[in-house]
Each structure stands twice: as structure tokens, then as C-alpha cells.
Amino acid sequence: MNAVGRVNPARAALALLLVLLATLCVSPHSTVARVSADALPSRLSDQEFWQTVEDMSERGGYFRSDNLLSNEDAFQHVIPTLERRLPSGGVYLGVGPDQNFTYIVAMHPKMAFVVDIRRQNMLLHLMYKAIIELSADRAEFLSRLFSRPMPEGLTSGSRAAELFDAFFAVPPSASLFSQNLSAVIDRLVRVHRFDLSSDDLASIEYVYRAFYSDGPELRYSFPRQGFGGRWFPSYAELMTATDTDGVEHSYLADERNFQALRSYEVNNLIVPLVGDFGGDKALRSVGRYLAAHRATVTLFYTSNVEQYLFQSGDQWRRFFDNVASLPVNDSSTLLRSYFNMGGMGFRRLQPFGPRSGFTRSGMLLDSIPELLDAVQRGSVHSYYDVIEHSSSLQPVF
User: Fold this and answer.
1) pLDDT tens for residues 240-271?
2) What is the pTM of this model?
3) CA distance 337 to 133
4) Is 25 domain-assigned?
5) What is the Cα–Cα distance from 52 to 388, expressed in whole angstroms?
6) Domain that holds residue 296
């Protein structure tokens, strides 16, 4: 104040500027209690979307399966816990195919990034994007996805099981496949003007033909090795799965979920990237983007990628360095899947899955800040260590 008790305008402006600068200079590597996501865009233009995909992506890598859909049969079991524990808003990170959609519509983030080592996964998401945008409702989406004529009698209130029963009863159509493939390519190349190569378009056709050929019975498989497995859940089984209380959460469970997903796609807010979790670009680029928009990671779904990183030298250390570059807060959570077919026998492990019987997978939660602290303390040396670290967050059956 000056001599007569009034605020000096210039000094007040300088003080406000210093506060703003201090706020902007908070390191994205640190754990912060609260970070607003209000600066995230409510929509990306087509040019912004594609530029983000190209600028943040790495060169595509190899994975042994096509991974056109999940092999995690218990992926919905954790959703009620996520809904109770985590706030909406913020940013979702994930890996793999369309199970990400179910987590996104459950968590209501402002924006989502899906990072996968295979370029084909990015193209799979672009195929989904086009089909979802072109479809007014769930029935039309499934008709386009499987290239099957629209069955009669379906309504906006039809349950997911009713939708799939109806589509099981109609055969695929070669003419619909050709027509729909042209519409998908037209949507991506001529409407959105994404710069896709001839190899990209051939990969999209390869992926789309798998949905046409197998329909609702499509399963996780290893076609390049010449075998698959009926023990993996089908697309229909995954979409009609429930949590442990019998509640459906998939993006096709009801029309509200599908329309929420469609809104994300129409607004270009689900951004698929090509990137190695242990790479030096994709995850760090996401971290810089979030820091610039004052946003934090709410949920990071990693599937069982960590298992492979621990099999690849120091890749797991690079991954955790990348995770440390992401802006997080005290509630930021990592969601990983755990497969118990190998009889690993982790201590105290109670995954979000069936309590008895043959369980292919379970879902495990971990606090990102606490996990990073454990890595920094030197308490993490193996895949077993990160699995056991998440056991303290499991429900008591």
C-alpha cells in the first residue's frame, strides 16, 4: 500500500504476474494435490488431431498377436471401484484395443490417449472412430462393424445381449463389407483428411475383414503364428460381460454409453498414438501436453504390458521414468491386468475377478505416486514386485 492506504496498481499487477508464473512453472514431474483440467480443449480440429497423432507417435514396433480385441475376461469387475475412488475429468491413458472405450465412458475424462507399440492398433482405433461417427446408434454401429444387415425389432432400449442375439442370426454380406470399407476410408481420408499411406489403408482393410469374417465371435488370436484359442472371450462375450454384481458397463451396454463414446470420437478427444511404453517419445510427449494444459492423469490402464517390459532389459526402468514425467496427483491410479494361468502365486493377491473357478485374468489397482516412490526407493526389481505392490489396493472378498 502507499502512504494513504491504497494498493499500488503497478505493484499489484506485478504480484499477480509472479503468482501466475509460479503456477505455470510447477514441474510436471512432481506430484501435485490438485491440477485443473479446464485448459484441455473441448474439441480438437481434424488438423490438430492428426498433427498430435503424428507429432507424438514413434516408429511402430512388433507384438506377437494382432490384438484386435481384449483377452481380459474380468476387465469390467474393477469399474465400480474406479467410479467410487476416482473423480471424473482429467485425462485417461490406455493401451490396446476397444476395452479402453468402456473405461473411458465409465470414467468421463476430458480427454483420452491410447498408446500402443503397434501402428496397427492406432489404425484399428481410426477404423472404430470412422464407424462410430457414421453410426447413429448401437445397432447401426454393429451392422457396420460386422457388415451384417440390420435385424428387425431392435430399439434404443435393447440390452446388449439382445443386440448380439439379433446379429448372430443374420449372415455377413460381402456387398455391405465393400460398401462400408469404402465409407470408412472416405471418412478418414476425404472428410477428416488424415494422411494415411497405402500400407495404412491395407492394414485397415485387414483389420476390418477380421470383423467381417468372424463377426461377434471374433476372439484374441495369433494369426501370424497360425493359431488362436476358443478359450479367449469373444467380442460378444466381452460386450455383454458384467461386474461382480451383474451390472453391465461396456460401451454397448446401453445407448447412453454409446452416445457418450460417439461424442468423444466426433470431437476428436480419443487420440491413438504409436508408442513403446519404454520409448523416448510418446508418453513423454503426452506428459508435456498435459503439463501445458494444466491437466493430470486420472487413470492409466497398462493391461499387462509391464510383464513384457521386465522381459526386455532396462525397458521397465525407462517406462517408470516416462510415468514419472506425467503430471499426476494423489488420486492418480494405474490399472493393470494379471493373468493367473501360469500359477505365479503372488502373496496376498486378490485381483478384481471371480473368487473361484478358472480365472483367465484379474484387474489390479495401484497408486501412481506410491508406485513411483517404490521405484525410487529401489523396492522394484521385477514384474512380481509391481504386482505385489498393487495387492494392498485389492478388495477383501
Assistant:
1) 999 989 999 999 999 999 999 999 999 999 99
2) 0.85
3) 30
4) no
5) 36
6) 30-393
